[in-house]
Amino acid sequence: MLEESLKWRAAYRPEDIRWPDVDVEAETGKMYRASFRDREGRTVVIMRPTKENTTSHDGQIRFLVYVLENAILSLPEGQEKMVWLIDFTGWTMAHATPIKTARESTSILQNYYPERLGIAFLFNPPKVFEAFYKAVKYFLDPRSIEKLNFVYLKDEESMKVLYKCIDPEVLPVDFGGRNNVAYNHEEYTKLMLKDDIKTSSFWSDDAKPVNRVANGNLVADVTPQSSLIAAKAS
Known about the structure:
9 helices, globular
C-alpha cells in the first residue's frame, strides 16, 4: 500500500495544492477544519453536504485532498487520526454526491489515507439518506464502516456517544453543543493562507518556503517529501 500511495502522491502532488486553488469550493463552509479538537486532541473536520456549491468533480476531489492534508499536518504530536463531524440536517437526494465523485473520494480515503480516520459522526441523517448510504456503503471497507456513528439530536443515547468524543462546551450549537461558533469564510481564508506557509516549510528540503503570487494572494511553493506522509498513512 505504501508503494501505491507514493505513486499516487507523485502523480497527483497533493502537497502542492494551495488555498487559492480550492477557495471557491470552500465559500459556503461545506467542509473545513474545526477550530476545536476532540477530547483526545485530534483534529476535527466538519462537513455539511447540504452546502455543496459546485458541480466540478475534479474541484471537489482536489478540495477534499487539500482538507485531508491540512487536517493531518494540524494533528498534535503523537496523534495520527482525525475526527469527522458530518451534518446531514436538511439533506435530500438533491444533495447526494454523484456516484463517480463518491467512489473516487472513498478510493482516495481508503487507499491513500488509510487509518487516518479515528471516528466519524453522521449527524441527523434523514430516512431518505438510507438509500444513498446503501449505494455508497458498497465502496467502503469493513474497517471504515465500523468507525461510522449515526447520531440524532433527539436521541439521547446516540448524543452521549458524540459527547464522549467531543466536549459539549466546544461542540457547535448546530450539533447539540454549547459553542456558538460559525464558519466565516474570510477568517478561514486568512487561516488557510497562513497554514499554506507552514505546509511549505514542512515539505521543503531546507524548510525555507519560496513564495509566489496567485489570485492576489501570497502562496507558498514547495519541494515535496511525499514518503513521510505516505508512510504514516499506510
